[in-house]
C-alpha cells in the first residue's frame, strides 16, 4: 500500500507555522531565512559569497594562480611534488565567509552546514568534478579518538552533501586512519608530510581495485593529508584518486 503524497498547500502551511514558532536564521549572518529556502543553513546573500570564487586555480593542487599561468605541469607550489592524487578541485580560497563556514562546520551542530557546503561544491564546480568521472566519494577519515571527541567527522558530512548532488555513493568506511596524528595546522610545513605518512589504510574487506575515487576533505593546505589518504587507496588498487575540498588554504 502506498502512502498518498502530502499536498503542497499543507506543506507550505506546515512550513509557515514552523517559521512562526521557530524562525530560522542564517548560520553565518543571523539574517532570517525565508520559507522558500528553509531547507538550507545559509541565506541567499551568504550562499552567493560562498560560491563567488572566480580565481584561476592549479588543477593539481587547487592553489590560486595568476590568470595566464601555465599549469599543465602544476603551479610553483606543487611542480616539484609527486602526488598520489590526480588533481584537486575547490569551492574557494580559505578566507572571508568560506573560512567562517569551514570553522563553524567543525563544531557541534555544524553537520548540516558541512553537508550544505558539500552540496554547494557539487553544484558550483560541476564541470571539473564531472570530468573526474568518479564512481564513489570517500571522505578523509578522522582517527576514532578524535571523531569521538568531536562527535562527528565534518569531511564525511561534506562528502555526503557532495555525493548526493553528484548522484554517487558515499563510502565513509573505505578508508581508516590507523593512528592518531598531531593536527596538521600545529605542525611545521616541512613536518606535515612525515606526520601523516602511512596513517591511512583501506577498511577490512573493502575492494577498491579499478575504482575511480573522489576523495573529500574540508581544507587542503600542503596536500600532505589527502596525499597520504590517496596513497592508501592507490596501493589498494584504485584506478584513480582525485580530490575535492571546500577550501584551499
Ligand atoms: Zn547569511
Ligand atoms: Zn599546484
UniProtKB/TrEMBL annotation:
Ranges where the Double zinc ribbon domain occurs: 17-78
The Phosphoribosyltransferase domain, residue ranges: 208-247
Top-level lineage group: Bacteria
PANTHER family documented for this protein: DNA UTILIZATION PROTEIN YHGH (PTHR47505:SF1)
Family: Belongs to the ComF/GntX family.
Name assigned to this protein: Competence protein F
Species name: Fimbriiglobus ruber
Amino acid at each position: 500500500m502506498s502512502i498518498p503524497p502530502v499536498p503542497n498547500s499543507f506543506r507550505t502551511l506546515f512550513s509557515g507555522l514552523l517559521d512562526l514558532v521557530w524562525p530560522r536564521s542564517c548560520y553565518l549572518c543571523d539574517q532570517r531565512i525565508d520559507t522558500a529556502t528553509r531547507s538550507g543553513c545559509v541565506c541567499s546573500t551568504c550562499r552567493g559569497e560562498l560560491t563567488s570564487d572566480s580565481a584561476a586555480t592549479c588543477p593539481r593542487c587547487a592553489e590560486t594562480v595568476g590568470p595566464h599561468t601555465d599549469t599543465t605541469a602544476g603551479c610553483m607550489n606543487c611542480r616539484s611534488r609527486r602526488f598520489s592524487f590526480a588533481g584537486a578541485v575547490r569551492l574557494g580560497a580559505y578566507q572571508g565567509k568560506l573560512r567562517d563556514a569551514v570553522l563553524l562546520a567543525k563544531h557541534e551542530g555544524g553537520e548540516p552546514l558541512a553537508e550544505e557546503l558539500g552540496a554547494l561544491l557539487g553544484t558550483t564546480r560541476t564541470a571539473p568534478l564531472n570530468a573526474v568521472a568518479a564512481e564513489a566519494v570517500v571522505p578523509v577519515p578522522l582517527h576514532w579518538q578524535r571523531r569521538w571527541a568531536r562527535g562527528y567527522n565534518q569531511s564525511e558530512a561534506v562528502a555526503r552533501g557532495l555525493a548526493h548532488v553528484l548522484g554517487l555513493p558515499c563510502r565513509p568506511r573505505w578508508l581508516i586512519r590507523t593512528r592518531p596524528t598531531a593536527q596538521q595546522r600545529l605542525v611545521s610545513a616541512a613536518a606535515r608530510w612525515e606526520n601523516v605518512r602511512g596513517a591511512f589504510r583501506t577498511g577490512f574487506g573493502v575492494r577498491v581495485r579499478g575504482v575511480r575515487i573522489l576523495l573529500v576533505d574540508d581544507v587542503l593546505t600542503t596536500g600532505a593529508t589527502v596525499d597520504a589518504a590517496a596513497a592508501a587507496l592507490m596501493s589498494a588498487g584504485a584506478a584513480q584518486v582525485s580530490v575535492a575540498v571546500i577550501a584551499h588554504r
